[in-house]
Amino acid sequence: MRAGAPAGFLVLPWPGGGGGSDPGPGDEGRGPLLLRCGALLGVAVICVAVLRRWIAGGVCRCTLRLDGKTVLITGANTGIGKETSRDLAGRGARVVMACRDLTRAEQAAEEIRQATGNGNVVIRHLDLASLYSVRQFAKEFLDTEDRLDILINNAGVMMCPKWLTEDGFETQLAVNHLGHFLLTNLLLPKLKSSAPSRVVTVSSIAHRGGRIDFDDLFFSRRRYSSLESYRQSKLANVLFSRELARRLRGSGVSSFCLHPGVIRTELGRHVQGWFPLLGALLSLPSLLLMKTPRQGSQTTVYCAVTPGLEGRSGAYFSDCAEKEAAPEGRDDAVARKLWEESTRLVGLKDTC
User: How far apart are CA 21 and CA 2, in angstroms?
Assistant: First the structure.
């Protein structure tokens, strides 16, 4: 006889086993199948983890403090600009967040103050699509700030429709290049007096294949392409950084530019506007195939704080390492011509 179950408990037979019953049809093959599925799932999880680690790229491991230093970051209220602000504020720097939307900027600044315990995080209004705004910002900064140790030209737009700024410039070239070109030149006196100091410009791997069309910079005559315009503006970033380094040689001010990686930020909102179905299809894969804003900020932080980079002024970086820019980004003749044309367009009389 089978032993009785303890009072109050109901004993049920284990499926396919015990009680002398014979295995049901297919039970013998179920175990190996479950093992194979489990093994495949384990391999998939490991592959995803390795892929995410590879996509995350380099990490800035420098622990340098920035107490007593002043950092200015454009486009600092979201994305990699916000994460860069958080990192540098955590190192003790005075962080000036230059943003177009002051409401969102103050929310981001307060979050950073709370997270880092650094109350020396301030916001200033700056609209890079307006030369007037850039000049007003620079004047106020020069009048009120004692020093400028690190300028990070981070703000940008990506593949937006063809919009013209109040100055009559195509928006992507205006915001990504001309606004930062003017801002940097206006702040050079403060950068020089604070030397050793650095200018870090966020570009993109999209500069590869870009072309500076000096005959039609703003697509006045040719058909507008949001991608072609974006590539032109990112190539302009690389050439500007390179020419700035050449002109500032011996001044104590270094210039670097970088590719931050492909990042999940608001920057790609216009891409989804152009191709909504593509944006929807890629939304889930993007969680695996794109960097987080924190991961995307690492090369910016690396260029801003790593000791000993002064001798590499003018270089291009990606994943916290120096890389070679595309051939079109190393054309010194085009870099000089772009500098001269940019000087004319923004109305600068004296440059470095």
Answer: 14
Q: How many CA atoms lie less than 13 Å away from 268 in the CB half-sphere?
A: 17
d(CA 325, CA 331): 10
Question: Residue 241's closest CA among 170, 325, 173?
Answer: 325
Read off φ and ψ for residue 335, nearest 5 degrees: -60, -45
State pTM to two decimals: 0.83
CB 88 within 8 A of CB 66: yes
Residue of 203, 259, 286 lying closest to 57 (CA atoms): 259
Q: What is the pLDDT of residues 296-336, one digit of tens each?
A: 999 999 999 999 999 999 999 999 999 999 999 999 999 99
Residue with tokens 């700035």: 244
Phi-psi region of 118 (alpha: psi -120 to 50; beta: other; left: phi over 0): beta
CA distance 236 to 31: 61
Give the model confidence (pLDDT) of 13-51 as tens digits: 555 444 445 555 555 667 777 777 777 777 665 655 555
Query: How far is residue 94's CA from residue 87's CA, in Å, rounded to a whole number?
Result: 12
DSSP classification of residue 67:
T
230 is catalytic: yes
Q: How far is CA 58 from CA 41, 259, 318, 321, 326, in A?
A: 28, 12, 8, 8, 20
Residue tagged active-site, from 132, 224, 230, 302:
230
What DSSP assignment string belongs to 145-213?
-S--SEEEE-----S----B-TTS-BHHHIIIIIHHHHHHHHHHHHHHHT-SEEEEEE--GGGTT----
